Structure formats: C-alpha cells, structure tokens
Amino acid sequence: xxxxxxxxxxxxxxxxxxxxxxxxxxxxxxxxxxxxxxxxxxxxxxxxxxxxxxxxxxxxxxxxxxxxxxxxxxxxxxxxxxxxxxxxxxxxxxxxxxxxxxxxxxxxxxxxxxxxxxxxxxxxxxxxxxxxxxxxxxxxxxxxxxxxxxxxxxxxxxxxxxxxxxxxxxxxxxxxxxxxxxxxxxxxxxxxxxxxxxxxxxxxxxxxxxxxxxxxxxxxxxxxxxxxxxxxxxxxxxxxxxxxxxxxxxxxxxxxxxxxxxxxxxxxxxxxxxxxxxxxxxxxxxxxxxxxxxxxxxxxxxxxxxxxxxxxxxxxxxxxxxxxxxxxxxxxxxxxxxxxxxxxxxxxxxxxxxxxxx
Length: 358
Ligand code: PMP
What we know:
Layout (H helix, E strand, L loop, with lengths): L26 E2 L11 H11 L11 H11 L6 E4 L1 H13 L6 E4 L5 H8 L4 E4 L19 E5 L11 H9 L6 E4 L20 E6 L12 E5 L1 H12 L8 H12 L1 H24 L3 E2 L6 E5 L5 H10 L2 E2 L12 E4 L3 H18 L4
Parallel strand pairs: 1-11, 3-4, 3-5, 5-6, 6-7
Antiparallel strand pairs: 2-8, 7-8, 9-10, 10-12
Helix pairs in contact: 1-7, 2-7, 3-4, 3-6, 8-10
Bound molecules: 4'-deoxy-4'-aminopyridoxal-5'-phosphate.
C-alpha cells in the first residue's frame, strides 16, 4: 500500500480470480470457461468491427439490447449490458443496497459478492447454506427492505433452485430488490427472466462468459423492470458510459444469431458433466448434483488442496477454495468429453499413488 492509498479502502481484500497462468499450457478446468471457440459468425463480426475502433462504441448499446430483448421476449428498455456480468452486479449493489437496504446472500456463493459489498461499504449478512451446501429458500423470505442476492445455479456448488422457489423469494420480498445471478443457467437450469414481467423488484443478471464462449470479450447483461434498469444506467453513466467496446457489442449480436451452435455446445457439456460425475462417484468422490458447467467434489482419499496441487503438477488446473466448510472440495470446470477423460485418468493415477485406490 502506498502512503497515498485512501483509508476508505485500507482494509479492502480484493477478489482473487482463478489462475490464468502464462508459463505453460494447462488443461484449464479452473475458471468455468467454455472449451469451445466462439462461432464463426462471432469471429467475422469481431474482425469487421475492428476496423471501426477509431470510433466510440454506442453508449446505449441499441443493436445488442434490442436483439437480446427479442431473444428473451422482453422490451429493450428492460435490458442493460455490461463489461462482464461482474460489472452489472457491482452497479446493482451500488444502485440498490445501502445502510437501509443491506445485502443478504449465502455464506457459500460467488466470492465477489462480499468484495463488491466491501468496496462500496455496504452492510451485508451471509446466511449459512445447509450441511449439504444447499440454499434454504425460507431463509430469504420476508427480509423487509433487504437486497437479496442469489446465484442460480449457485457457485461453486452448482446446485439449482427451481423457479417456483425463486418466485417465492421474489414475491416474499416486495419491498426489496432480489438479484438473481444466472451466470450458469444455460446448462440445465431455468431462467427467471419471465418473472421480471410480473415483479418490479427482480433483477436477473446473465453473462456471455460461460455458455456463449466469450469470457475474454467481457459481456454481461441485466434484465428487469425499466425503473430498475434506469437506476443501473444512472450508475453506469456516472462510471463509464462506453462500458462495452465495439467488438464485444458486435460479437454479442452475432452470438445470438448462432444460438443453435451454443445450445448444442451446452448439451455436450451437460453430457460430459454427467459422465464425469458418474466416474468420480465410482472413484469414491462425493459429487454435488450440478446444473452448471462445473462439478463440486471431494473425496476422503485425498485433501482438496493436495488433489489440486497433484493435478497442477500434471498440467491440469482445477479450482480449490481455501475457505471454511468447503476446503475439502474442488471445483472442476466441465470441458469436452476428451478433456474430462484426461482429468479422470489423472485423478485415478493420483489416487493409486496415494494408496487411495486399490
Ligand atoms: N456470477 C458468477 C456466479 C460467476 O461465477 C461469475 C464468473 N466468475 C460471474 C458472475 C462473472 O462472470 P463475468 O464477469 O465473466 O460475466
């Protein structure tokens, strides 16, 4: 810390993103990226738009918002786009949470929520998930003016709450905003976007980073009542009106045109996920049932961190969280079937070496 760093942030502990090592080529199963490249249409759109980088991007993102609105069956004034969904989450925390409307989210969830809360000096409560790591929806009903944040499917567990439970949470908090983070919804979950027509306190957040193979382009979105979107735009326009660059805006439109390609990829990932879950279970792992593009798993044969390190030595990266309640687990991104076969073979070898597999 320099002697000039504001005391407002002196105690801030930043979010630690998953490793993105540049030293060697790893099989990357640690940050929930798609193993599939962007579609040809996206590549062509990026190439074409690159020639116009001398001009600012559309601060209202009209083309993309209108196309996204069509694909979700909502009006464009219900859509905001952002530089990754992290950005719209931060905007939402800034816009809706305060001393009078504190945040509530599970103790086991996306690690950026407490960081955004700390950054913006917002009070928050973490509600413990059950012993099986599931969220009890009843814990989030009747919270008054509190701002509820739920990732659905949750991360890093992959557990999914049915839409009926999400609706109970939204209808059970008419005086507070409920933010539903659907980063992983396209791998077998069900989106709450249709509920935004009925509830003015629901903000659904989505991303192109996972199911649409665009983590490196940084594109996220929020969908909700036009008044909520207007508030988010007040924050956005006070921060960075050109928050999404030209190439990413164009890629975002093109990806929606190539929806069939991305849907097919999601199905492949779901199939590889189920195959991997079965294999790991047969090897003695406890595997949390996942509706996301990752699995959360542990085994009594080897500690979470030890397995993470042993795989890293073999050139395979997975994610270990050194956090109470979940330090025995690892989060494994689901890649292609072939990648998952490589992973399972490496785990088998490690377990044999450890004497954990006879
Ligand atoms: N929400 C959740 C639950 C996530 O796991 C992630 C990915 N780290 C994000 C949001 C943010 O993703 P992005 O900013 O790439 O859209």
